[in-house]
Amino acid sequence: xxVNSNLLMYAQWAGxxxxxxxxxxxxxxxxxxxxxxxxxxxxxxxxxxxxSIFGLGLGLFTRTEIPGAVRYSxxxxxxxxxxxxxxxxxxxxxxxEATMQQAAADLYSPGRSGRGRDYMxxxxxxxxxxEPGVSQPLFLGEVRRSLATRYxxxxxxxxxxxxxxxLKKYQS
Length: 172
Description:
- There is one protein chain.
- The protein is an alpha+beta fold and 172 residues long.
- It contains four helices and five strands.
- The chain has helices spanning 3-30, 36-57, 93-106, 161-171, and strands spanning 73-77, 82-86, 119-131, 134-146, 156-159.
- The mean pLDDT is 87.
């Protein structure tokens, strides 16, 4: 069950509870109980909570799932047009492009500023160890995507074949 359907279910229960409090408030006014005005506040607060949960469930969390993508970590992010992610050194070349598409979808934000550029660059790297005690970063590729549109059909994915060949050498 995803987060949006959970939030909509919670909104439904909060709405039911709000209606129950409203009925209880009407009964309190009919019977002229002393705490009837407090129930007006409780009912109003429950209505606000139910509406807020419903609003969150309508689309706060939009996440694109790319099949075949592996987990990555964000290493460097200027909050603008340049980011670097790292992938595990065991990544297969077939998973690399899917992971790059996933990162491009995840790292898009309408609040990013390009400082004169209208595209964002995401560099993908991994760390290999040629010998014990020595770490070497390998940049496997980069993605250039638009900063203006969420779904960029002109996204450029460039995989560096010589670096991928070097990675395969360390994988075996």
